[in-house]
Amino acid sequence: MRYGRRSILLAAALPYTLAWVATAFSNSVDMISATSFCGGMLVCCITMITQVYITEIAVPEIRGCLSSVSKILSQIGILISYSLGAYLNWQQLAFVVATAPILLFLALLFIPETPSSLFLRGKEEEAADSLQWLRGPDSDIRQELATIRTNILASKQYHNGRAGKLKVLLSKRLTRPVLITCGLMFFQRFTGAHVFSFYAVPMFKKTFRMMNPHGGAIATSAVQLLASCLSGMLIDNVGRLPLLMISGVMMSIALAGYGSYAYYMAIFMNSTDLTQSEPGAYDWIPLICVLTFTIAFSLGISPISSLLIGELFPLEYRSTGSALATSFSHLCGFVNVKTAADIQDHIGLYGLFWLYAGISVLCLLFVVLFVPETKGREIDEMDPKYVESLCINR
Prior knowledge:
Elements: H1 5-24, H2 29-57, H3 60-85, H4 90-97, H5 99-108, H6 115-120, H7 124-135, H8 142-160, H9 165-169, H10 172-189, H11 193-207, H12 213-234, H13 240-268, H14 272-276, H15 284-299, H16 301-312, H17 315-370, H18 385-388
Helix pairs in contact: 1-2, 1-4, 1-5, 2-3, 2-16, 2-17, 3-12, 3-16, 10-16, 10-17, 11-12, 11-17, 12-15, 13-15, 13-17
């Protein structure tokens, strides 16, 4: 809020490259842990602020699509990493990945700060130049500029009129978006997607009898990319809620199916029917389940959870709210990935995925009951009454 979105992205880019270079030169587990910690902090800053930046520069008609574009490019990066990982060792791969933040730094040199951020810091002339650059040299920005100016001043007055920080933190303008976004982040992290990412190859080794598990991981990443592209085309036409509900239903079915197959493999591995069957004859079942889950996750909850962080929070709370939601998301991700192997040891791979299927059902209920539709709506500085109208009990 003090220095702007673009400035923080510039400040984080090159140190992130250094973190990857240090990882490549690591010669102990302790050093890898230290570089991972630094890199994790930096990538969290970059991903969070990138979403806020996209939300603030986009018009409502394309805001969802632009948010999906960032997810699509993220999936392209993951696909490249998986593909290169089949041929490079981890040190060589770290050197390759270290080039990405350099490209980010160079790209940021050619784009402006967001108009909303500049207005909030009293830089009105720079805000006008930024908005003109974003909308095009021939666009008439006077109406949009006046609306942003008026509503930011109103937000400042509202914020200054609150007595004490506790009342600010308990304001409905902050608490309602925090509850909604943190709820979505919980379900995003605890439905198994990150377990697939971190443990894809070991899990595929347990369920694939003949298929190359590395090939399965690459195929999963490729499907995730295609699903992200489909989400980008649908999100501003169909809306957020329908995609979230479709995502919840498909994830539940796919996770239950994968868990059931893992149970079948665990119970009947030594049965006559399975041992006499052709090796790899059933490999298509877990692969279909994984690909279905990947499509559902990338179509709905993955891009939309991040998008709503930028859409639901009013400008004066956007940095605080985004930080809270993103921090909670990474906390859930840490707990999920850290405990997944232990839970699997206690209840088996099938039990783990049946648990994720149950959480996906709860996710669907949460979406139906609590998440508002934001398709085509202006963000707070364009429509300050919108956040006040958010209702937990829809």
